[in-house]
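Q&A log
Question type: sequence-to-structure
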Amino acid sequence: MITLTQDAGGFIRMSRHFPINAQITIVYTVGSSEVFSGAQLNAIYDEARTVFRAQNHLDAKGFSRGPVKTVHPSTDIAFVAVHAGMAAQ
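Response status: OK
Response body:
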């Protein structure tokens, strides 16, 4: 059993996929908790990564096809927004 804690901003730290059959408990800032399967959290992570890449004009693999403009490029996410009730969706 893996336990993750939501931060004050409403995010959990997740930089990779979890095993599909893993049971992950998320403890929310309000004190409640919810159990997710690895497959559920992986789907949430994939959706957040897709939105991030679209907003930053990256392709499906996370590469920028335009000229490099930043000193510190970031092509992936490390935090995923969660809220109570997501496990039931």
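Response note: The CA atoms of residues 14 and 53 lie 16 Å apart.
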